Amino acid sequence: MRQFSKAMLVVGLSLATGATPSALADVLATPDAPVAVGVVAVPCAQVPVRPAAAHEAASDPHANWMRDWLSLDWGQRCRYESENAALPPPSRARVVFFGDSITAGWKDVDPSFFDGDRIDRGISGQTTAQMLVRFRADVLELRPAVVHIMAGTNDIAGNRGPTSLRIIQGKLMSMVEQARAHGIRVVLASIPPSAQFPWRREISPAASILAMNTWMRGYAAREHVVYVDYYAALVDQAQGVQAALSGDGVHPNAAGYALMRPLAIAALKRASVAAR
């Protein structure tokens, strides 16, 4: 097992991610403490916990997440490790909402929606490839009755590099197949509308989002999984999200999540009925 000082990681990760060494040094506390790499007894203990203040203080939180030192935990499998361990035994009504910042933000805006049986496992900035890395830890091992999967925004934004619709579709299919192999019913959610990403203004995502949602609807029908169409509830005439439903053109606000909530409840009911 090899060890590196955190100071060494600051330099290496600044070169790899484009973040300034000073910004990374602020995130990595006690920079001279050794960090183990390779096979260790408790891997997540070796991943530095990023203070929330470092994210909140960033001038562009989306870009700040994308520049993160994810080489230590690229899929962020460790993000929910302690919360997963603290969960009670699963009930027959357990639902995992699995996704990116749109899912993560749902609990922040509407915490009452996530009671003991509804578990939010969203992580800001994640692509479908990263979600696959943690699918076992944050979905399969929690043994839910239903998983609600909403993903694709960050793939289309190119958060982890170039991709294609076929690649995104393949990652979603892999999640669905893993869930079904473990007896977990699936709700596949549309990608919410957006005409522009604040952190990728050079991209025009509307056509790709519409194409992905058209594919998802057809795939869900062929595979007999439930498709929930948030896109239709949120979209405006320009194929973006309605201004009254989002503060940044991507993430729903309280009014947006209020429209999504009954659609989610109906989709979960359909998934339960389909299993009978």
- Provide the succession of SSEs: EHHEHHHEHEHHEHHEHEHH
Just name the CATH architecture of the largest domain.
Answer: 3-Layer(aba) Sandwich
Helix content: 40-55%
Q: How far is the N terminus from the C terminus?
A: 50 Å
CATH topology descriptor of the largest domain: Rossmann fold
Lay out the secondary structure.
Elements: E1 2-5, H1 6-17, H2 21-27, E2 34-37, H3 52-56, H4 61-66, H5 81-85, E3 95-99, H6 101-109, E4 118-122, H7 128-133, H8 135-138, E5 146-150, H9 153-157, H10 165-181, E6 185-189, H11 206-223, E7 226-228, H12 230-234, H13 254-274
Parallel strand pairs: 3-4, 3-5, 5-6, 6-7
Antiparallel strand pairs: 1-2
Describe the structure.
The protein is an alpha/beta fold and 276 residues long. It has 2 domains: 2-72, no CATH class; 85-274, Rossmann fold (3-Layer(aba) Sandwich), CATH 3.40.50. 43% of the residues lie in helices and 11% in strands. It has helices at 6-17, 21-27, 52-56, 61-66, 81-85, 101-109, 128-133, 135-138, 153-157, 165-181, 206-223, 230-234, 254-274; strands spanning 2-5, 34-37, 95-99, 118-122, 146-150, 185-189, 226-228. Helix 1 packs across helix 2 (21-27). The chain is globular. It starts with a strand and ends with a helix.
How would you concisely characterize the structure shown here?
The protein is 43% helix and 11% strand. It has 276 residues and is of the alpha/beta class.
